[in-house]
Amino acid sequence: MLENCKSAQERWGGVSNIIDRWLVERQDLLVQYCELSEAAGSVTNYKNCGSQLQSLCQILVDYISAGHFEVYDQLMREGRDFDDQEGLKRASKSFEIVDSSTEYILDFNDKYQETDDTDDLIEDLSHLGEVLASRFEAEDSMIKVLHVAHKDQATT
To answer: What is the DSSP letter of 116?
Structure first.
């Protein structure tokens, strides 16, 4: 998709658009996570949050898929195109955090996508929140060292 762009501005502006859309999806994910956490924390709503849980699972999978199959590839390509070995090295460490969080998120999805058993939901949501916070921090670091760091170079 972006490989056919005619100028650096078109190319890296396209990456910015991909990242921007992805970060909007992250915001939607956080809103759904908070709404579900609030509902699950209520004794009266605890067992009645199945549709919210299904929705959260779907956006979780969509979000991590976009990251792995679209955003990270573009970020790594940008680092290679600008021959930013230090940035690639730092991003690689961040990617290890992202990769390990992916396993937990997929396990969470597998556990709750097809079940009505919410006995562990509050604890699992708490742990999911911690995993997401760590993941978002690592993703932000990757964006900073592989995209934001090259913004001035991309416009010249």
So the answer is: -
Q: What CA–CA distance (Å, rounded) separates 17 from 19?
A: 5
Structural domain 7-150, CATH architecture: Up-down Bundle (1.20)
Q: 69 burial class (0-12, 13-18, 19+ CB within 10 angstroms)?
A: exposed
Note the pLDDT tens digit of each residue in 134-144.
Answer: 999 999 999 99
Residue type, 58: Q
Other Cβ atoms within 10 Å of 115 Cβ, number: 10
Position of tokens 């195109």? Answer: 81
Global pTM value: 0.83
Residue whose entry in the numeric block shows the structure tokens 């999806």: 25
pLDDT tens track for 110-127: 999 877 778 889 999 999
